[in-house]
Design a protein that fits this description.
This is histidine kinase. The protein has about 700 residues and is of the alpha+beta class. The chain has a five-stranded mixed barrel with strand order 1-2-3-5-4.
């Protein structure tokens, strides 16, 4: 503001007074820059300010106006009593208190009572404010508020309030966000219909820090349009885009200059999926792409669309922004691409419609919905992005290991934690119907397998422990049984030996003693009988010697013929043939056929009969060759002892042959038949026949 001071000459006092007055006047009329005023409010200093600038928007019905200087813009309440009211383009001086109202910095009369500040219109040669172009993301980051900006977007919807003089509200989508534009004028509904889905160039005040109800939560910013001249439709430029040939999709597409409408792309494709007022996915001849659009029309899979949009290379993935869609015709809904075992980049394009089948892996997230992973047969995993329509009941039905089929849009998840686990793909179902549970998990879950392995380990431990204890008990019982058997066998052996001594050796010794007594009396009474008595007594003593030798051999041998008659008899013949003497005899043994099962006592009696026959042949028949044959048959068992001695008359009693009676007694005891054949000087043949059926019957009984 220019400052006027009258001139005074030739008076230093007057000059001093003029300087003091000028300083006082400057202090009272000094202006704050809008940027300094905002900084003072942020620092919490004295918030009373006086700013000067050009009005960029003013509406008495809304009670909001904006003034802007070279450093920024700020809002104030224009509803003062002063007339005429300032309008857009006027230069004003605004004095008042800085405060925040609905999230926006404003100049009001009082910090608590609000009210309009002091507003004075001024004549000034200030240059007109030129609008600044901002992307909405950048404006939000820079906290732009109250500046006149130039914005290009597409009109999506217009709301006309029922109350007169209330500005219309137009929803405008831009490549970088979604804004609400307040239009302080009214037009007919027919004209409004021509605005829908048409590009528009807007010169308006941008507000990014407002709060509801001034700025809805789903909007990125608010535009206050000063008048019709700041609202320019660009429909011809959009028509020119649709006249071009469809573009070829590729990740190398650069970001277009969004301030120029002719930089839009034209793509043609068939809808594979859509979400109203958010996005659609198109399958084109060169790939699939996602188009972000707030268009209110409903598109179904199978619709063929032409879309004018801005390309955006988003981390290597091509995305189309702020699409304007026009429907051409209707075709059959496209079939999803079948994912067999893994995602192959050569076959599957991002944002294409795919179908995959695999097993579920659920990851529980603290405080949120579970994360559902799908493991394909090839081992690759992908994320199923269906948390937006997943109910709590459906969440509870998700079980690890279930087989699930998912149809949806293929994308790349942005979660770095998933990429660390090798999950680089995600499938976004279009609805609950795209998710089908084929079959439940296998009964053998991980926890059940672990439980089964634990039980099997426990059972194996118990089985091994039981087996070891049982083996120890069996060994202990075997030792006990062997000791009992040893004692029993020893007892039976003692009884047998005592019985043998009593039946043979003792009787023969008694007979020998009797012969000696007879010999004593015959010395005087019958001297002629002395030689025969002496021979009989000597024969008895020799027989006692043989019996004693048999008993000693039985004690030294194992089993005494009870377990294997043939082996025992063969061993005894070998021992008998090896006894010292002049020209030992030839003893032969032969076994024919299979030996039948015989009890121990029968084996022992047969062994004694054979031993007695061999001893008789060697002692009395002067035999040089003795043959012993054991023959087994299904119905009988036989023993043959044959020698080449001088023989004897088996029908007569012979002095000194005391073993014959013992042999017959032993044969009778086991139920066998004993036959002797002895021609003079042609040897002796003894045959013992034992019916095996009778023996076996006795054994069974």
């Amino acid at each position: 503001m220019a400052l006027y001071a009258p001139s005074m000459k030739n008076s230093s006092l007057a000059l001093s007074a003029l300087m003091a007055f000028s300083a006082t006047l400057w202090a009272e009329t000094a202006h704050d820059s809008i940027a300094d005023a905002r900084a003072r409010l942020a620092r919490g200093e004295n918030a009373r300010v006086c700013v000067s600038g050009r009005v960029t928007f003013s509406n008495m019905r809304l009670g909001i106006a904006f003034v802007q200087d070279d450093t920024g813009g700020i809002a104030y309440d224009p509803r003062t009593s002063q007339k005429p009211f300032p309008i857009a383009g006027d230069v004003v001086e605004v004095s008042g208190v800085l405060t925040r109202r609905q999230g926006m910095v404003m100049i009001l009369r009082d910090k608590e009572l609000f009210g309009p500040p002091k507003v004075d219109r001024q004549e000034s040669s200030l240059m007109r404010v030129r609008p600044v172009t901002f992307e909405l993301e950048s404006a939000a980051e820079m906290r732009i508020d109250g500046l006149l900006t130039q914005t290009t977007g597409v009109v999506r919807r217009v709301i006309v309030p029922k109350v007169d003089n209330v500005p219309m509200i137009a929803e405008v989508s831009t490549p970088s966000g979604y804004v609400l534009a307040r239009l302080p004028w009214r037009v007919a509904q027919a004209e409004i219909d021509t605005w829908i889905n048409s590009p528009v160039l807007i010169n308006a005040v941008l507000v990014c820090q407002g709060q509801p109800p001034l700025l809805p939560r789903d909007a990125d910013a608010m535009l206050f349009v000063p008048g019709k001249g700041a609202w320019t439709l660009q429909t011809p430029a959009l028509e020119e885009v649709f006249q071009r040939p469809p573009a070829t999709l590729s990740p190398e597409l650069m970001v277009a200059n969004r301030s120029t409408q002719d930089k839009r792309l034209h793509i043609l494709g068939i809808v594979t999926s859509s979400r109203p007022r958010q996005w659609i996915t198109l399958r084109t001849s060169t790939g699939s792409v996602q188009v972000m659009t707030r268009q209110a029309d409903t598109f179904e899979p199978g619709d063929i669309l032409s879309v004018a949009c801005w390309p955006q290379n988003n981390g290597g993935r091509l995305v189309m922004l702020d699409g304007v869609c026009r429907k051409h015709s209707r075709a059959t809904a496209p079939e999803p691409l079948e994912v067999v075992s893994s995602f192959m980049p050569a076959l599957y394009h991002p944002m294409d419609l795919v179908k995959a089948t695999g097993t579920i892996k659920v990851q529980q997230i603290s405080g949120g919905a579970p994360r559902v992973m799908l493991r394909l047969p090839g081992g690759e995993t992908c994320l199923v992005q269906w948390a937006t329509f997943l109910t709590s009941k459906q969440s509870d039905e998700l079980i690890d290991g279930s087989t699930m089929s998912v149809t949806g849009i293929l994308s790349a998840p942005r979660d770095p934690a998933l990429q660390e686990y090798g999950t680089i793909h995600a499938i976004q179902p279009r609805s609950v119907a795209d998710v089908k549970l084929i079959k439940g998990p296998s009964w053998w879950t991980t926890s059940r397998l672990k439980g089964a392995m634990a039980w099997m380990s426990l059972l194996a431990f118990l089985g091994i422990s039981t087996t070891l204890v049982s083996r120890w008990q069996v060994r202990r019982q075997r030792k006990l049984i062997r000791s009992i058997e040893a004692r029993t066998i020893a007892e039976e052996e003692r009884k047998r030996i005592s019985r043998d001594f009593h039946d043979s050796l003792q009787q023969q010794l008694a007979s020998a003693a009797l012969h000696l007594e007879t010999l004593k009396g015959a010395v005087e009474a019958a001297p002629d009988m002395m030689p025969s008595l002496i021979d009989d007594t000597a024969a008895m003593i020799r027989h006692c010697q043989i019996e004693a030798r048999h008993c000693i051999w039985d004690l030294r041998s194992e089993g005494g013929g009870r377990e294997n008659l043939a082996e025992t008899l063969k061993e005894w013949l070998h021992m008998r043939a090896s006894q010292p003497g002049k020209g030992g005899p030839d003893l032969y043994f032969e076994q024919r056929g299979e030996m039948p099962p015989l009890d121990e006592d029968t084996c022992f009696q047969i062994l004694r009969i054979a031993q007695e026959a061999v001893n008789n042949a060697l002692a009395h028949a002067n035999a040089r060759r003795v043959t012993v044959i054991l023959e087994g048959a299904p119905e009988r068992f036989s023993l043959l002892v044959e020698d080449d001695g001088k023989g004897f008359d088996a029908t007569q009693s012979h002095r000194g042959r005391f073993g014959l009676n013992g042999q017959r007694e032993r044969a009778h005891k086991i139920g066998a038949q004993l036959h002797f054949t002895s021609p003079p000087d042609k040897g002796t043949r003894m045959i013992l026949c034992l019916p095996t059926q009778k023996t076996n019957h006795a054994l069974i009984t």
